[in-house]
């Protein structure tokens, strides 16, 4: 998967403080969500791609740990990013 610089900047601009704010939890969660959605689409057509499946599981775990961190740090920021990305129903 190739994610070009412009798409990354758009993600960080929308979910972070600015384009250069690549370290914020919200920006990282948004980037992981984008990549998870892409890999999920790939796995729907390539069911036996086990390396991609493993990468997807690792990404979901990373996103989960960041969401847990954000829950402990600031619940309002957690609720905002979950609502913005549509992670919970």
From TrEMBL:
Q: Tell me which positions the record assigns to the signal sequence.
A: none
Checking SUPFAM superfamilies in the record gives: S15/NS1 RNA-binding domain
User: InterPro entries attached here?
Assistant: Ribosomal_uS15 (IPR000589), Ribosomal_uS15_bac-type (IPR005290), uS15_NS1_RNA-bd_sf (IPR009068)
Similarity comment: Belongs to the universal ribosomal protein uS15 family.
Annotated Gene Ontology cellular components are: cytosolic small ribosomal subunit
Q: Give the multimer and partner information.
A: Part of the 30S ribosomal subunit. Forms a bridge to the 50S subunit in the 70S ribosome, contacting the 23S rRNA.
Gene3D superfamilies recorded for this chain?
6.10.250.3130, S15/NS1, RNA-binding
Known SMART domains for this protein?
A: Ribosomal_S15
- Give me any GO biological process, just one: translation
The name under which this protein is listed is: Small ribosomal subunit protein uS15
* Organism domain of life: Bacteria
Tell me which species this is from.
Answer: Subsaximicrobium wynnwilliamsii
UniProt entry tagged with the keyword Isomerase? no
**Keywords in alphabetical order:** Ribonucleoprotein, Ribosomal protein, RNA-binding, rRNA-binding
State the Gene Ontology terms under molecular function.
rRNA binding; structural constituent of ribosome
So what does this one do? Forms an intersubunit bridge (bridge B4) with the 23S rRNA of the 50S subunit in the ribosome.
